[in-house]
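Worked example 3 (structure in, sequence out).
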């Protein structure tokens, strides 16, 4: 019978989601693992490069998110492999469409796991790719056997499994009630606490919990004031709030619900009823998040879709008008894609679309840059704060990267694709037209096609509004 494995290693976690980073760090640091975090692929590559250049020991393992701003996980993995080929990389993917075994293997990825990852998946990766201090491998103690025995011993407790799940911010100034709520909920959720209204507003903005349990009667800022602040802020306006309070008049309940509370529970309350009401809100929140993600993500390529692009364009357009800053757009189209599909088949065509999408995303260097698939073989890239010269340079870099891309078929045949790109850039005013902004880029794209494809076109002077 084995004990819980313990490690003395250092792992790089590359993940753009704050919640996911914290959940993974909590699991790993609990067994002696030192963690280093990076918010995107580019930062991860720089960390590996700095370590190599400084003569330090390489990371023992890398957990790499697949879809991130600035540089995606597959591109980052290929660069890390070139710098530190001995470092195993585990890719974390959200959907089956991201799973491309041959491509991942070619880019130095040892294993692919789903997101959100269970504790058992994380442990399986640790046992498989690292050597615990307290388990002598050999004989029966092989990775699969260790995982099975850990499962039989119930090492993967429910509390551990929940730690990577939903989070709740408890706002309560009375210690006894705070301790009670923690005791009731800690086995099912990740918990954060705040003991004042002001602290609650700050933590909610930083942590973005899935649910907030909010007392009403508190010194300084009361619960009604807190929910008013939360609903005004874009980042916290959609977080469900449940009031937990001793105020039991119909007027107080009506006021709380009118301010946007999802539920209203009066003290004293049953722990069973509290847990059921929280569970109902969490399930609803999870469903909403899933629907939102599906509705804004292109299911084939994993990047954002047309709906998401339209929303982001309106957002960036409004910001550029207010701040009188430059906004650029690239519209890219895969050249002769119908011929590619007819030659290699639609399955290979889908693989090419995914490869092009990853390459475009991996070519962008700022978190504010945005790429989406508009439909078919057409992609759009928004570049806030970038002038025409800078946008044209980025377009040319993307075109060059895709021209060099090797897209392997089932029989290992190397296929290639090229793109044509139209560019437009301007400082929009209140009278400017967003439709004309896109239309100019479209016209430049058609010029690139007519001039022979595989090129970037843009007006030689600043585009008109």
């Amino acid at each position: 019978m084995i004990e819980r494995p313990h490690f003395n290693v250092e792992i790089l976690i590359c993940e753009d989601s704050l919640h996911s980073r914290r959940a993974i760090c909590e699991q790993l640091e609990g067994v002696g693992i030192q963690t280093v975090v990076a918010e995107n692929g580019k930062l991860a590559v720089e960390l590996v490069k700095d370590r190599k250049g400084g003569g330090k020991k390489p990371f023992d393992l890398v957990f790499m998110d697949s879809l991130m701003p600035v540089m995606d996980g597959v591109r980052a993995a290929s660069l890390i492999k070139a710098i530190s080929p001995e470092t195993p990389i585990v890719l974390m993917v959200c959907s089956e469409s991201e799973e491309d075994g041959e491509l991942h293997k070619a880019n130095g990825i040892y294993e692919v796991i789903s997101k959100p990852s269970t504790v058992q998946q994380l442990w399986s990766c640790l046992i498989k790719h690292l050597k615990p201090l307290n388990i002598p491998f050999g004989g029966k103690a092989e990775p699969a056997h260790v995982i099975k025995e850990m499962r039989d011993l119930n090492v993967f407790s429910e509390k551990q499994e929940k730690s990577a799940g939903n989070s709740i911010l408890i706002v309560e100034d009375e210690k006894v009630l705070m301790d009670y709520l923690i005791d009731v909920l800690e086995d099912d959720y990740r918990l954060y606490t705040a003991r004042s209204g002001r602290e609650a507003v700050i933590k909610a903005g930083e942590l973005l919990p899935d649910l907030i349990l909010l007392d009403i009667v508190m010194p300084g800022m009361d619960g009604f004031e807190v929910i008013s602040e939360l609903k005004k802020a874009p980042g916290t306006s959609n977080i469900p709030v449940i009031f937990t309070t001793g105020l039991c008049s119909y007027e107080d309940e009506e006021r709380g619900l009118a301010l946007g509370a999802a539920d209203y529970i009066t003290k004293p309350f049953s722990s069973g009823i509290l847990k059921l009401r929280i569970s109902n809100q969490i399930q609803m929140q999870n469903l909403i998040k899933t629907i939102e993600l599906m509705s804004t993500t292109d299911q084939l390529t994993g990047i954002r879709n047309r709906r998401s692009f339209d929303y982001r364009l309106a957002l960036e357009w409004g910001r550029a008008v207010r701040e009188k800053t430059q906004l650029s757009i690239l519209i890219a189209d895969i050249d002769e894609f119908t011929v590619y599909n007819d030659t290699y088949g639609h399955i290979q065509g889908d693989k090419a679309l995914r490869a092009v999408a990853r390459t475009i995303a991996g070519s962008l260097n700022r978190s504010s840059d945005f790429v989406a698939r508009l439909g078919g073989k057409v992609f759009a890239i928004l570049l806030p704060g970038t002038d025409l010269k800078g946008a044209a340079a980025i377009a040319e870099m993307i075109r060059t990267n895709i021209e060099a891309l090797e897209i392997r078929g089932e029989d290992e045949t190397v296929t290639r694709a090229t793109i044509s790109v139209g560019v437009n850039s301007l400082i929009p005013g209140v009278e400017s037209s967003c439709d004309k902004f896109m239309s100019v880029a479209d016209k430049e794209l058609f010029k690139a096609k007519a001039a022979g494809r595989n090129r970037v076109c843009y007006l030689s002077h600043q585009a008109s509004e």
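Notes: The first strand starts at residue 10 and ends at 14. The radius of gyration is 25 Å.
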